[in-house]
């Protein structure tokens, strides 16, 4: 079993405080977090955590980053409906998900986001 296969999943919603769609989507995202307790769900405001984005420019909200360990599996906008993300999680958790290609900026974003999560957890 590879390190990624045994690592915890990280589900990140990249959002913005000013985005009305994000505000409406957050309760559904939080509800999914309760349904998937073995996955870490993170709500990340792109303006509060600009350093996490690096050169990446998020233009469509909500955008979701999904990864396991240090391997990003998905980065892209999703429809703001819990069923869409639910189906993605079901599919990816089946074990047949492939990581994005090496060099994809999503891998670096996943590492930076994981560091933010660790820092947040250390403060609590």
UniProtKB/TrEMBL annotation:
Protein name: Thioredoxin family protein
Transmembrane segments: none
Domain Thioredoxin: 9-69
Stored Pfam families: Thioredoxin
């Amino acid at each position: 079993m590879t390190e990624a296969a045994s690592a915890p999943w990280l589900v990140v919603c990249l959002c913005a405080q000013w985005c009305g769609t994000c505000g409406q989507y957050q309760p559904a995202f939080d509800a999914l977090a309760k349904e998937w307790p073995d996955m870490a769900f993170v709500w990340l405001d792109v303006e509060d955590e600009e350093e996490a984005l690096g050169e990446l420019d998020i233009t469509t909200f909500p955008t979701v980053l999904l990864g396991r360990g240090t391997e990003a599996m998905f980065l892209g906008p999703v429809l703001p409906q819990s069923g869409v993300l639910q189906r993605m999680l079901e599919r990816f958790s089946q074990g047949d998900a492939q990581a994005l290609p090496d060099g994809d900026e999503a891998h670096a974003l996943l590492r930076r986001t994981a560091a933010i999560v660790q820092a947040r957890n250390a403060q609590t």
